[in-house]
Structures
1.
Amino acid sequence: MPNRLAHETSPYLLQHADNPVDWWPWSGAAFDEARRRGVPVLLSVGYSSCHWCHVMAHESFEDDDTARYLNEHFVSVKVDREERPDVDAVYMEAVQAATGHGGWPMTVFLTPDAEPFYFGTYFPPAPRQGMPSFRQVLEGVAVAWRDRRDEVGQVAGNIVRELAGRTLGTGGAGAPGEAELAQALLGLTREYDDRHGGFGGAPKFPPSMAVEFLLRHHARTGSEGALQMAADTCEAMARGGIYDQLGGGFARYSVDREWVVPHFEKMLYDNALLCRVYAHLWRATGSDLARRVALETADFMVRELRTPEGGFASALDADSDDGTGKVVEGAFYVWTPQQLRDVLGDDDAAYAERFYGVTEDGTFERGASVLQLPQGAGVLDAERLDRIRQRLLAAREERPRPGRDDKIVAAWNGLAIAALAETGAYFDRPDLIERATEAADLLVRLHMDDSARLARTSKDGRVGANAGVLEDYGDVAEGFLALAGVTGEGAWLEFAGFLLDIVLDRFQGEDGVLYDTAHDAEPLIRRPQDPTDNAAPSGWTAAAGALLAYGAHTGSEAHRSAAERALGVVKALGPRAPRFIGWGLATAVALVDGPREIAVAGPRGDAATRALHRTALLATAPGAVVAAGDPDSDEFPLLRDRILVDGRPTAYVCRHFVCDAPTTDATALSAKLSN
């Protein structure tokens, strides 16, 4: 019989709906039940595409004996970290503080007052490599709860008090300037892997936000070193196994420092951020590789992640059936030499082996290889390779596909909207702009209520019950602002303003600090607050970037000042930990540059207007905002009173609404924006 998760919208929770464990979703009712029964709470946090979450579920949560013990001694609560990032953040902070590391599945034992007292991540079904079995952990916790409850309560109280004392204030530190940005660049240079690209060692994650900072820093200062790090990192990733050489799109991370073997799950946020970065790299350099990867990644998102409602699904699993009924990681993506010969024949298979780096020994497991485009493979026959690629892609489509997490997360759709809108504009792909617009329409129609407050998720056209967090407001506003700049539709600027007003009203604290949850959100053991950029921009830096752009669009000093105050944390963290606040640094570069405000006044259908508009969009000026349309329109404040010079479409380049001399010439506009 299905448990209480059967009525949830989260695919991850629904995967556990038929477990023999009597799961509860996160709710006050679950803790009331623990209080009534006098038992502790097992909190298990994971997400749909998490490999080890599936492993633990199969080993323990599908086991009848384990389930019976859980049901007798605990109230079990299952949380999708992507639906409830606030719950995940609070308890992950406790796990990391207690154990020095974290990860998923996250396993935390709580009192009925939601106070944590014992922590872990994955526990095996039998003792292994110094780890106790899950059953041993359950029995130990149950005994401690029964025999030493006062001690357990004291431990839990101490943990909560310690967490509550962790507050992050910037206290008027001010936004970072030239010195802090130079120190951040130096810090990235020290951590840069000059042999393989990227930063640090294994596992190696795609540093999309740090690369965006490097591109903006180069655009503002001319630093060739910054551009080289960005370009070499992007090329290394695009040639590596982390990039899907057949279908486009990036995996979550590489298990090695050479980008060869990925963890095969594909996340919407990674691909949205990387699509935009490669498009910006092309804008800066004209690189054919950057153009190809940007477009292939955009096409991957539309083909593989777009939902019938017009939004974008969260992820594709790493695991799939290998054709024998066994579910293994990477089965959909890897190839043996024999599999290549079966599809291509001997001659083309030998060619594909060389160009894709497929070997008899394999680069992955069981003699299989992850496809790459290694350097030095010989002279490229583009036509032949494209033909081979299409045949392999068609053959791969016959394999059992990885599962897809169909829930729509507002924040990640905001990132996708920005990426698709800009990529479509740069490469004359109106279909991509249309897909971005449809996703934005869905967010307005389904995720925003009458007061413009956001819901975090939806699935199959049904909105979830969880309130949007700060990253939802910041990233969706970012997407709307990008869409406004590309389409010339001022409604998107207005919607962004609604969201950012809520940020100022409900997420901002003293001295400009920002919190991940609204002040009237469900209270947890502490109000989460994390400014560091991890897999995606933090809510803090996402909001700062959108506030700055909206202030540039509208002249709103309130929004600009809020952005400047929020960037105080970047001044504190950027020089010390630049890898972990890349979007904050990119926003700080835009602030130092202005950002520039570009108004293109003229009839939308006019060829000269389009030429000026395209030139403005292709400008590398960091964080520049663009408004294009009829000067008589009230949709964009930047366009008000912008007269047409000699009756011709005219462009104005401004900072703080103070403008240079207008121009009607696209070449002259490009020159203005390159200084």
2.
Amino acid sequence: MKKILIISLLFLTLGFTIGCEDDYEAPFGDYSSFSWYTGDGVAANFDLTEKQINIDNYIAFYDVSQNAISHKWTIPASCNFLNKEITDKDSIYTPFIIPGTESAEDLANVLFVEPGIQEVVLTNVFKDSVANSSKLSDGSWEIEQKFTVDVFANPNPACEIFKYDYSDPLNPTLVKVLTLTQDQIPSEEEIDSWQTVSIEAGQDLMYVDKSTEGRPTGTKWYLDGGKPETSGGDTAVVKYNKLGEFTSYMESIRAGEEVPKKTISKIIPLKIEVLPSTAPFVRTGKVSITDNVISFSVTGEVAALVQQEDFFTVHVTNETAGFDQNIAVSSAKINSEDATIIELTLAEPVYNTDTITLAYSGGNIVSVDSRVLDDFEPTIVTMDLGSNVLVESWAGFENASSSGNTTRKADCDGYWVGAANDNLGLPFYRTTDKFYEGEASMKYESADGVVTVALQGSDFSKPNGIEAGTYRVSYMVYLEPGNTMKTFTNIIQKPSQEIVWDIENLPRGEWIEISQDITTAAIASGTRFDLKVVVSNNSDAVGLQKMYFDNLSWVKLIPRS
């Protein structure tokens, strides 16, 4: 619990401090005014009448009106006044509670113990008229101000947990194993009475958040023995690879600029028993290589890797260089952060123009639940080709144009729409409606068949130019269903070169990567690179034609000498 203190900026200016002594004197003679201060302990606010607060916290309201005959604070029966002896260091408020729902003190410490909208009312009587006051008998004037306080209940974690039924291995089904309600308050001291769920190593549990109380904005899961060990989001699918018995807990979180922050945790009363797996221990997913290290995943955590290098066969071919041979593995180890990943460092360098396969046979790699890794046949290794030589914000159409003729700029910095007829409607335009990555893409849209138009990329190859060589050029493209376009082209201004893209048979309605290799002489910084659509190349395209471009990439291919 934390006190929310109302600080008067006026008091600070005048050398006053809000405290527990009721010794305030009006500094302005006979001048009458009706005023108050509210704040959050950092910045004071004049005339703030709406507040938000966590339940079981208090707000200090201070009446700084001038020359009132009388004043009165009124609070709901669900609230309590606290006396002036309370300090910021106090966290238990019961000893400071004052009975009653009315107070004539200048300072009113109000404790809120029920959620919902609560009203605190300040009523003052003046001898002279003040703004918005109503005249009473005997020449007195009364004015009333209501303060609305939105009291937030504490978040209250609740969840459901599911396991998979593998009776049909090809079609596993979810089975609920536990419901934790908001009314339950489990204790770790009661662990002997908790329910137990048994799963095999390598199997998953699904955690689903069911918290509603306290207006939560998020959830975090803490999953001992799981992968991952922590997770956010309403649903977490967690794999258990290690043998043993594990527990978990969750947090229900309320956070953000518009709400009072609060996090409440609750242990989940479930013992998770992980047993040895009856499934084979095999390689899974793709095999990849980055910085001369091959990595792949297996269906369980590896207990140890000792002298297993010779059981892997890495075969490398490069037709252009006439290379066709095996490369030795110099070290085999377990990934330091994820024991289901094996990493193989090669004894010789490989190049992004190589084709690589990996096979494994005859070794003794054992999982933590004592399974032996199965052999696997030669498998293609996916190569990380390297970095894009283009400025990625330009190549991803990320920067909106901020000045000039934004229509002719396709609303994108570094581009210009060049068309034979300026009345075409300029089909190229940056959009945030659909994108593969980042926040934007480039859209081509023509209502009645294609029109000949070029999107001129004026910032191509900045800032340092592109050196001579062979490059893997690629786009991510999305063709809307109904698009019947066949092709588009790229044109490098100098040295003059055209890249033709065949898109006729690409699937519609999904993002697809297209790529091809080109060889070029050196390209100077700032050379123009156009994306062009031509009518004569798309003669069968009628009706609405719409497609999106994202993530243009140029990656230099390194030849094997």
3.
Amino acid sequence: MPRTLLVAPAGRQVGVTTVCLGLVRALDRLGVRVAFAKPIAARGENRAAALLKLGARVDSPEPIARAAAENLLATGDDQTLMERVVALCASAAEGADVLVVEGMAPEPGMVWSTRVNALMLKALDAELVIVGAPRGETPAELANAVSIAARGLGADVDGRGVGCILNRVTAGAASAGEARTHWFDAAVEAEDVPPSVLDGYADALRAEKLRPIGIVPSRSDLAAPRVKDLAGALGAKVLRAGDQDRRRIRSVALCAMSVPGSIKVFRPGTLIITPGDRSDIVVAASLAVLNGMPLAGLLLTGGVEPEEHVFAMCERALETGLPILAVKEGSYAAASAVAAMNLQIPPDDVERVERVMNTVADRLDREWLEGLGRTRRVRRLSPPAFRHRLVESARAADKRIVLPEGTEPRTIAAASIVQERGIARCVLLGNPDEIRDVARKQGVSLPASLELLDPAVIAPRYVEPLVERRRSKGMTPEMARSELGDTIMVGTMMMALDEADGLVSGALHTTAHTIRPALQIIKTVPGCDLVSSVFFMCLPEQVLVFGDCAVNPNPTAEQLADIAIQSADSARAFGIDPRVAMLSYSTGTSGTGADVEKVKKATELARAQRPDLAVDGPLQYDAAIVPDVGRQKAPKSDVAGRATVFVFPDLNTGNVTYKAVQRSANVVSIGPMLQGLAKPVNDLSRGCLVEDIVFTITLTAIQAQQRAAQR
């Protein structure tokens, strides 16, 4: 058995499942092989296993049925139950370094959860991680209660030491039950909990000889349900679905006053509850949406639905995705039902699972985690480990990244996240008042340190430097002023004058538009005439590099060799051991034709130029990635079946393949990251998400550090 952690509660509703999610994510980030098991089923569905599979792609065995466990306990046959628990955990732990076991949480009518957890702690020879959550008591009182719970499980608090995680810690004294009942106005954001409060809880735990391995502040966005979840909980009739699958409810407002009084409570993410016959509120909410206010949705009460001509009047607002639900209950009863809805994470809510996993993982003791993960095995670079490494490397680089599309909503949101997390120093180019207005309408809080620069104000100072750099191409001051009307050119000149370390654009512009100024002004790395791209494909078990899937339509053999070398260097720079597969529809000498010959020649050129790299081709995709197929089709290859860098023969093949893998296998792809420029410029897809922009900025900051180190 690997090292085993039993995560057990010190009370009811302390968030044991969310702590398990965070533990798995934190260990995965370190490249530790982690497994999960919930040995005995809770009431209802096996939610923990579903969430782990969704968030970490960790499969766990089917738990022992609750009725079977109760029958064995009722007859005093504890040993048979524990034999089954050990067998189940051994099955789950196969090939893992650390096994996370979720203990039993007390439920109404259950009197044996503590007994079972104590039995499992011994049977599995596990280390106890006990989870508590404040309910209005002082830090000292909570620490004492947690210590009593740990001793009740038979843990050696005085000797071996017990790790403790406190969950949902708030700055005030509101109880956990009270916060849960009024989740939309009582939850406290992490930034509202001062470090001194968190330190006070940690000191109280140490006084009870418990090791504080994580103090997790309460955050309202972790509890925010989707409109879809509300509709299911209330049995509401969906009048207009809109974006109910994605919109989240961050606050609730009961509107029964006239319009002037009601609109004061309109906020981003607000669910408006109003009687169904209040068409004036429906119209007012629609106007607010059209003016940029991202409401969560409308809940119409009393069993009354607006007439169709009212919906017709609001059609433009409805087209933006505004959901409208209806219930038969009155407004007060409906508001009470919303306040009391179950806030457990649904097993299909990927976004919320990711937020919970990362929030808990970020708060866990790094030294303790690394101690768990010490092993002689070769570590794998899992997707969470890769993303975590990217963020940490970018933070250390401390680079200034310019964002020419500064008024674009997704870009503003991403820049705020990057700035808050210290990933890079962002510069938004755009009218500062317009940027602030867009941020306000989107509910985005702009950090004070985020730079907002008006390109119309700063552009004149780049006229002369631009003329100097493009004089041989006939550039005049008048032409330069015209070129600098483009914010991408302004951002490129900032890089040229060492005022910025990198540039990210493309949410509104084409790839060609983004790259053209850089090719004219920044140019390529000395000795390199080609700009290419790679995607980092975050498969469940590892991260692969795909190149070139975004820039060169039909590269020559010489260019293909350059792409292979650039992609291998990028892989190595980001912690991936490069084994380069030159892809084709043929493996080795099994096929002929111009396309195969091009790949053969490119492979020979890449090997000649960089004998230090493992490069092989032509290889079919299955021969490159599947060990059994690789051994069969290319038995002498040191790349086949083990490739980490995949070089596609042309843009058509590469772009289709990366999107097929991304969409069909639900794989996160980070990129494209451009290669070959003297300073990093990276392009976004026009359909990009905020997270995509965050990670593209992160990549750009790391590239900037690498370029600086090469000078």
4.
Amino acid sequence: MTKTNRRRGRKDRLKQVSEPDLQPPVWPGVVGGRLKPLSAGEETMVEEAALKLLDQLGLSQAIPSMIAKVTAAGGSMTDDGRLLFPRKLVNWAIDEARRGFTLCGQRPANDLKIEAARVHMSTGGAAPGVFDLDTHKYRDSTLQDLYDAARIVDQMDNIHHFSRSVVARDIEDNALMDLNTAYACLAGTSKHVSISITEPQNVAEIAQLCYAIAGGEAAFRARPFLTVMVCHVVPPMRFAEEACDVLELAIQAGFPVQLISAGQAGATSPATIAGSLVQAVAETLAGLVFARLVDPEVKAIFAPKPLVADLRTGSMSGGGGEQAILMAGAAQMGRYWDLPTSSIAGITDAKRLDAQYGAEKTLAVTMAAHAGSNIVTQAAGMMSSLLGVSHAAYVTDNDLLGNILRTIRGIEATPENIAADVIAEVCRGEGHYLGEQHTFSRMKSDYFYPEIGDRRAPRDWEEDGAQRIGDVARDKAREILNSYFPTHVPDDLDRMLRDKFDIRLTRTQTGRPE
């Protein structure tokens, strides 16, 4: 090959590299589900045990409307006040549950298709604390922190969904906190948002806020962009009465709902992994029955999220192998029934961005995702066993999650990908693949490249300041917070919302002129 041809070939390759990705290396909804920690026989045992508990033990503290609906559908009340769910009714709830639906973003580009084993990464937590970007110490979280978390996530390609991550502890009134939590999340990101609602009487105002943003109630019901997360049980096997009221009202208002059981192994659920899993599955299925009796077409997400305790102290411990395998098993049961499923994973016990953080988060998120959880919550930003959030960690986790998504995508062994003809051509030619068209055509579609992960030689890294990954992430987080203020809520709509609702984030805090 002449020097001129080599130059021309290099220029052509550079042109190809600079062209937009036709096929990115990872995307929202990469299909998982290959990891199955439960054998087929164990799946059946978990199912049988859960159905037996619901049929013969039931749950206590059911609200009147639930009792009326379940007993009218074939359930019954025991003398000691437990509501029994017959197998036929539970199987109806599972078999006829809505599948293959979309969790909408405020912008359609952020829509998430929830079906089969498609995997999406999410924040989460409701943490009471924040690891401060500047002081590197924990402090109480605020409404501003929540808005800041949402707008960082809005810029992270591999965090697909924003679940309320911190509590606005600077707002004491529950109704105001719920309203402003919804506003801060929805103003901070156009991705699908999930929040909790503390009291039933607060549902209506949050619904009105969403209707106003959507352009009317009908528009929101057609494209709901906010899910209400409901911990409808207080384990073991008791309903949370106010939460069940919230669940019923949220469904009636048109919200998708996430049905969460979060017992703690050894404390509020059995110490064994299998026992904790069975209880969480049973409690979540009871919520699914009620949700579908309220509205058979509800967008309901099966979300058994059993947690683990360190039995030496009784404190919650989210970073161990027990939590990872428990979440993978919960996700597998969701796939067993082909239910839209959410899992909790990534609640590392680490207190800052360090080796413990990366190891524990990677272990848990990888297992839940490979087991096929549709929404993996707490996968980004969360640390300190659900007690704290780091804004810088959203930036590092964007890389971590991209790499995990790439592993879920798999090897994709096809005749084209095996590339036997390319191997033969190279072996008979120059003996390497660096200049091959096949290499350049795949370098962006098949390989995930980290945004802040450092792959340089040690000397180059040292000459550039030898920054630790946490320092790089903090700089990136500050850059976003200083320059990026989302505008998907138009200015005139934002002013209208402030006239109608008691919004506590100032326009200055959201980057808008007063």
